[in-house]
Every structure is written in structure tokens, then in C-alpha cells.
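testing teh design pipeline on a random one, pls ignore if ur not involved
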């Protein structure tokens, strides 16, 4: 079949866009590359729009530098996501060939978007903050500023009265991990249910401190790992500065002011196709009390949802060998509290696979709602 001269256009000049065009002279075989984070060698996140597609034909997109990406072992078993409307995303056939990643779409429209994971836009973030303030009953407690001056809202649900437990949930320190803000949307959506007995129990004794997006600059620029200064925020918790990592410094200052009794840091993992948590077992101040709280949290969440498990995850740290630059370890040590990193997959949850979507924004939201049930169960044992 003869194909007309290339009408294909590839663009990424939008919120969280990331792609470099190498050669699109053959519209059915686009040769592309992922652009590294600003001031950093990290790359893995991609997000672009393809226009001028030939309806009914199979289009292949090749990411030429995939084997050099930050987590190049993560491409095995991975499927890219695509959407015709930038709202409903689905997985597409994807092959890692050892050096490049190829994915295809037999198109039903003349344009489509492709991404590493279902993106969470800055526009939706602004809408989410509005929902949190007008429907979920949170207050805007403070607003930090990113390196480039974007707002980092800190929301509080609760009175802040003396003696109440302080539960902190932050998300998307790593900007490519968009499932983290989808998770926060689930948390905030559940907070809109004012007659929810689980929430009533939780909010009777605890206040929630929420930071839905820690790294708005990185997210906007289509970064995988770093902020606008090339800083990995989740390696900055012992050295945060106004110049290089104001996003972390802001949250540390607010934690210092209000205190922390439980801390959850929400992330996505490129390689492991499961939902899991990492704790503070390597901290110098790790105690049987904290160990018991970690076990309580994991055991409850495992029974709460089929999307959480404890068999797969990171290798446990040896006693006293934790990397204290991570938020989870730094906060857990400083406040002697239950402190966990929660990881969701970029791929799928192999315990409950969904062939159409893999892990998704919707599933991330549901996990956020489920985690609140576990927080409500554990809150009475925190101190």
C-alpha cells in the first residue's frame, strides 16, 4: 500500500511534554528520543502528541535512547499508554529490543497522545486544590514556592487543636510519578464524603496534612526525577536549601511547626509490578514500637485491598544503614514516628492485572481511598 508523504507531526510543547524528534520521514515508523531532565542525566518519562496519523494503519514509535534511561531494566514487561482524548488512557503493544523501546497503535483517529503513564496535569492539580477547599473541607494552611515560583499548597483537614494526631501525606517528589497525585485525588475525593464513618473516626482524633504535588516544576517540564535545579528531592532531606530544593525546605519547616505522628510519601516504581511500602528498618532510631506500627499498617492494608501486598518490594536496609537523605527515613528519625514510602507500579499490579489499562490513575485514586481506612485503623496506636 502506498502511503502519502509524511503528514506526521510530533509535539511535546505542553504541560509534562517530553520528546525529541529524530526522524519522522516515514509516518508509520517515527524515530524519537526522550529528553533528559534539566540539569540532570535522568530520563524515562515521555509524553507527546502525534498528529496527522493515517486512520486504520499501524503506526510504530521508536524511542531510540531507551536503553540508556535511568531505569533501563524497567522496560521489560512495560507497555506504553495512549489516548485519543487526553482523558481515557489505555495500554498499547510495546516491545523492548535491548537498545530501543517500540510501541504501536492501529489508529482510529488522526491524532493521539502517548505517555509513560497517565499524566496528571497542572490544570487538574489546580482543580483538585479547588475541590479540596470547597468540597472536602480542607484549609490552605500554607503555600510554598518551587524554584520557578509555582505554588506548593499545604492543605489541612482538621482543627489543629492540641493533642490531635498529625498525619502527613506528600506526593510526587519525583515528577514523573504521576500516579502519586492521582492517589492524592482519591484521598481528597474521599474527604468530600462528610458522613463517611471511617473518616469520622479518623478525624475525631487526627488532622491530615496534605501536599498533593511536591515538584510542580519537574512535572511541568516532563522530568522523571528532579526539580528545575536538577535536584532529586527525595535525596535532599538532609541538605534542603532555598536555592536548590525549596520544595523540601518548605515542607520541613511546616513539619517543624506542626509536628508529625504518621508520614506517608507517595511514589511510583518503574521496575516492580506491585504496590508495596518501604519503611525505616535501617534508621538508627528504629525501635520495636515502630516495627509493630509498620506491621499493623501493612497487615491492615493488605486485607483492605487486593492491590497491596508484602511479598515484593525493595531489599530491606540493614540496621543503622538507612539512606537518611530520603524523606521517609529523615522524617521517621526526626519525629520518632511511623513513616513509610508507598510505591505504585508504572506497569501493572501482577496480583490483579488489568489488560486494558495496567496500573492507572483510577486505580491510584482507589488506593488513596483505601489507605485512609488503614490510617484510621492505625491512628489510635501511633503514640
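output:
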Amino acid at each position: 500500500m502506498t502511503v502519502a508523504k509524511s503528514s506526521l507531526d510530533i509535539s511535546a510543547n505542553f504541560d509534562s511534554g517530553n520528546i525529541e524528534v529524530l526522524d519522522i520521514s516515514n509516518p508509520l515508523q517515527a524515530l524519537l528520543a526522550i529528553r533528559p531532565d534539566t540539569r540532570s542525566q535522568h530520563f524515562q518519562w515521555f509524553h507527546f502528541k502525534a498528529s496527522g496519523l493515517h486512520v486504520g494503519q499501524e503506526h510504530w514509535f521508536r524511542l531510540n535512547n531507551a536503553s540508556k534511561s535511568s531505569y533501563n531494566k524497567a522496560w521489560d514487561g512495560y507497555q506504553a499508554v495512549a489516548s485519543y482524548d487526553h482523558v481515557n488512557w489505555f495500554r498499547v503493544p510495546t516491545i523492548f529490543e535491548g537498545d530501543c523501546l517500540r510501541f504501536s497503535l492501529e489508529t482510529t483517529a488522526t491524532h493521539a497522545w502517548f505517555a509513560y503513564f497517565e499524566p496528571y496535569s497542572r490544570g487538574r492539580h489546580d482543580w483538585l486544590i479547588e475541590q479540596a477547599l470547597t468540597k472536602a473541607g480542607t484549609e490552605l494552611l500554607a503555600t510554598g514556592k518551587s524554584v520557578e515560583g509555582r505554588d506548593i499548597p499545604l492543605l489541612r483537614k482538621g482543627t489543629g487543636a492540641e493533642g490531635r494526631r498529625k498525619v502527613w501525606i506528600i506526593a510526587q517528589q519525583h515528577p514523573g510519578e504521576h500516579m502519586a497525585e492521582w492517589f492524592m485525588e482519591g484521598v481528597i475525593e474521599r474527604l468530600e464524603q462528610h458522613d463517611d464513618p471511617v473518616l469520622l473516626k479518623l478525624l475525631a482524633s487526627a488532622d491530615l496534612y496534605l501536599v498533593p504535588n511536591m515538584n510542580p516544576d519537574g512535572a511541568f517540564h516532563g522530568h522523571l526525577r528532579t526539580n528545575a535545579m536538577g535536584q532529586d528531592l527525595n535525596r535532599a532531606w538532609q541538605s534542603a536549601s532555598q536555592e536548590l530544593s525549596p520544595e523540601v525546605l518548605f515542607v520541613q519547616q511546616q513539619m517543624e511547626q506542626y509536628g508529625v505522628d504518621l508520614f506517608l510519601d507517595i511514589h511510583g516504581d518503574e521496575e516492580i509490578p506491585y504496590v508495596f511500602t518501604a519503611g525505616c528498618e535501617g534508621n538508627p532510631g528504629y525501635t520495636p514500637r515502630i516495627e509493630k506500627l509498620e506491621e499493623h499498617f501493612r497487615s491492615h492494608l493488605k486485607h483492605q485491598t487486593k492491590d497491596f501486598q508484602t511479598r515484593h518490594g525493595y531489599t530491606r536496609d540493614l540496621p543503622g544503614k538507612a539512606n537518611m537523605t530520603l524523606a521517609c527515613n529523615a522524617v521517621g528519625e526526626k519525629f520518632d514516628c511511623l513513616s513509610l514510602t508507598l510505591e505504585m507500579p508504572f506497569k501493572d499490579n501482577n496480583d490483579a492485572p488489568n489488560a486494558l489499562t495496567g496500573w492507572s490513575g483510577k486505580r491510584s485514586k482507589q488506593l488513596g481511598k483505601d489507605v485512609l481506612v488503614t490510617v484510621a485503623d492505625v491512628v489510635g496506636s501511633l503514640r
